[in-house]
Amino acid sequence: MFEQTFKNLDDVLWKEAGCSSELDYTEQSSWILFLKYLDDLEQEYEQEAELGDIPYEYIIDAEYRWSTWAAPKKDGKPDRDNAKTGTDLIRFVDNKLFPYLQSFKESASSPETIEYKIGEIFSEIKNKFASGYSLRDALELVDQLTFGSQAEKHELSALYESKIKNMGNAGRNGGEYYTPRPLIRAMIQVVQPRIGERVYDGACGSAGFLCEAFNYLRYAPDGSSRPLKTDELDALETRTLYGKEKKSLAYVIAIMNLILHGVDAPNIIHTNTLAENLADVQEKDRYNVILANPPFGGKERPEIQQNFPIKTGETAFLFLQHFIKYLKAKGRAAVVIKNTFLSNSDNASKALRQELLENCNLHTVLDCPSGTFIGAGVKTVVLFFDKGEPTQQVWYYQLDPGRNMGKTNPLNDNDLKEFIALQRTFADSEKSWSVKIADVDKDNFDLSVKNPNKQEAAALRDPQAILDEIAGLDAESKEILDVIRGLL
């Protein structure tokens, strides 16, 4: 129903001089979508208040409501005579609308409120439309979308997900914005979060893990809604999913993504997660389930490293310490990390592996093939661990879809079916095996992926033999060329 509208919106953005990439397209469509959603939500609240004969107090003042400036109507049809456009529209958005919405951050009663989210979002992004005519076209397209029913939200969330996927695939930082959803779903099926538990992603990006966790808890495998009680649904929407994100664009997208999935005021905090001192973490701060793909390859400054017992500049290793600390006793975690973590010989890596093995049960390691993450040049593994008991044995699974993966041939749910099935009993197979921690070298705690069921590759040939063969082939070629010249 809405797919054509999204395509038309992309066409408008593509022609807009102020928008030059998929990142811009997603950012600009996000703030417009958010304001339309907010208007629909306020109208729904007003109708509910009227039914209870209670006066409703609007969050947004009349002048700044969608129905006033973005899509004024007359007799149910667009009122183009009173609709701002061209330079007038850009001036209104830049000089009045955005400053007004930014002010909500200061006046909101707490960071958990929708008012605070409004202020935070509009403090972090800018209107990039240079043409008021293009913006007018975009507003009229988005006005066609409605967020009233769960089915409408479900369709919009699927379209928004595809937009995030395109953005993630657009550049070399793809993995930063987009973790393949089949991998996330497999991680969730192993960890099995439950309503009433607190699920956390401290590097939530576009909130892919939290949205998929919501889908897992809200819908049955066949897509039908689970028969949740009112208090269960309230717990799922308000007290189950938690995230933190440092980057402004990702934060805005995360908020919009969760809203489209049915979470009206997402518990996403815009902050540098690693700036928190782990010594200050209390029991009330901890979570039952952690799902994450933290950024790797980054280098953190010395003052950030001081917040961690194991000092390292590698961002992902700091996040892993953060997750171990923030996990409740008997809590479950699934974390994506580059595969070199398992074997790096530096002191920080060895100490972190020892910490993980001694304080958590690292029961499963999923080895992912190259191409799992579009645009990421490193190989990754997924660590599955429970907190509170030391590791006795690690079960490994080497994912091998039997094809080269890339943009046109990405990871799919079928690729991970065997992993999910075998993981339940930690069964051995050609692709899976177990390693006892008693057999691991205690000097380096090397946990490298070494499949004992795969035949060793043929030994590399001696370099001199290769050079001799090349010389022989060159001599044969010379003789043939000499014969051909003699025939001319």
Automatic annotation (TrEMBL):
Coiled-coil regions, chain positions: none
Residues of the N6 adenine-specific DNA methyltransferase N-terminal domain: 5-129
Superkingdom per UniProt: Bacteria
Keyword Transferase in record: yes
Pfam family, one: HsdM_N
InterPro entries, per the entry: D12N6_MeTrfase_N (IPR022749), DNA_Adenine_Mtase (IPR051537), DNA_methylase_A-5 (IPR003356), DNA_methylase_N6_adenine_CS (IPR002052), SAM-dependent_MTases_sf (IPR029063), T1MK-like_N_sf (IPR038333)
Protein EC: 2.1.1.72
Family per record: Belongs to the N(4)/N(6)-methyltransferase family.
Protein name (Swiss-Prot/TrEMBL): site-specific DNA-methyltransferase (adenine-specific)
Organism: Thiothrix unzii
